[in-house]
From TrEMBL:
Domain Era-type G stretches: 4-173
Protein name: GTPase Era
Gene coding for it: era
Function of the molecule: An essential GTPase that binds both GDP and GTP, with rapid nucleotide exchange. Plays a role in 16S rRNA processing and 30S ribosomal subunit biogenesis and possibly also in cell cycle regulation and energy metabolism.
Principal subcellular localisation of the protein: cytoplasm
Amino acid sequence: MSTRAGFVALIGEPNAGKSTLLNRMVGAKVSIVTHKVQTTRARIRGVAMEGDSQIVFVDTPGLFQPRRRLDRAMVAAAWGGASDADVIVLLIEAHRGVTEGVERILEGLADVGQGRRVALAINKIDRVEAPRLLALVQKMNERFTFAETFMISAERGHGCDDLRRWLAAEVPEGPWLYPEDQIADLPMRMIAAEMTREKLTLRLHQELPYQMTVETENWEERKDGSARIDQVIYVMRDGHKGIVLGHKGETIKAVSKASREELTEFLGRRVHLFLQVKVRPGWLEEKERYSEMGLEFRDGDG
Ligand SMILES: Nc1nc2c(ncn2[C@@H]2O[C@H](COP(=O)(O)OP(=O)(O)OP(=O)(O)O)[C@@H](O)[C@H]2O)c(=O)[nH]1
Ligand SMILES: [Mg+2]
């Protein structure tokens, strides 16, 4: 019997539920999720098996109109993910319908979708009534030739098995690309940094999550089987540092605890996590920060 394997890019506006879907497909939390937009910053791969098919899901940053250098690098990574994939799944939110952002993505797809199968996944169906959903399916299919339309709830799992089965038949014949038991291919140090960034994003308000980044500086395996992980949180201003630390250090303590707990569960062993906050006004313009995030830094792109 022949095997199949291929890449499936999940694209859509920020907050559409791409990372939630990736985690659901893989069956583990590989990509971080928050209720805020622009959570995912780089391409994140998660591997799912379905019968004889290996589906490599590529979670991408949301597509929006970029302003800053970081935004542009994120959007470029997302379109790059789509153009490298065998199949593209466009996620839209059932309750928001065809937004301006969705219109712009459809324009982009007219180009990037050429010669590629593109499926539509209407997500968050738990938030709308059936008649509205059917009208949306029709409207979207008038705008673009989707190979198939799925109505799903990534959070609750509705429709996700159907989508996975369909994708398993869509990826090309060929040998598997990863060992059967591998679920992600992001370096552990990056997954660990992402977990801390998620906890920070959940606790910090307004613009602050967009003005910080987290890096794992050091990872030490200890003789007793535990891991010591040192991370740096880069912020842009002194005032931000104070907010991240919180009154009497309460915020950073809570973040550290939540991140450590999740890392402990993920790694299946004890974790000692040390967080440090550094003020770095120009981090958004530093090449090294981008490579740590898994993004491309293009000169003259400022
Ligand atoms: N009600 C409902 N909420 C959902 C569903 N799927 C995802 N969400 C929520 O939508 C929010 C955004 O989810 P993410 O998975 O982070 O979205 P994303 O598309 O990866 O967002 P970016 O990384 O910012 O581009 C989170 O609060 C999720 O819990 C769903 O099926 N139903
Ligand atoms: Mg995401």
